[in-house]
Write the structure tokens for this entry.
Amino acid sequence: MQVAEQTRQKTVIEAEGRARAVQLEGEAEGQKILAVGTATAEAYEKQVAAVGQSNLAGIEVAKTIAAAGLKITPDIVVGGTGESGSLFAAFVANLLAGNRAVLAAPPSGNGAGGT
């Protein structure tokens, strides 16, 4: 009977110890989250003071677009006054864009012309 009571007490003490450890870990994680949040808020406040809210918003949007790899500029820009000129220019620009890799590749050594 005494062994059973000692086993029960040991189990209770171990459970209380684990509960306290979990509580302390939770409190520490909460303090960490609060500290990071406070530091982030202070950093944003200083950035707003330095460049202004609108400029900071523009900077953050540009960072997000760059990080996502979004393409915001066209491959081909065509301008002109005449409708047919613009269509022809767009056609030629599209052809050149499609052949860009071929034009940029170094010539292969096929043995023609020399050394």
About this structure: The mean pLDDT is 84.
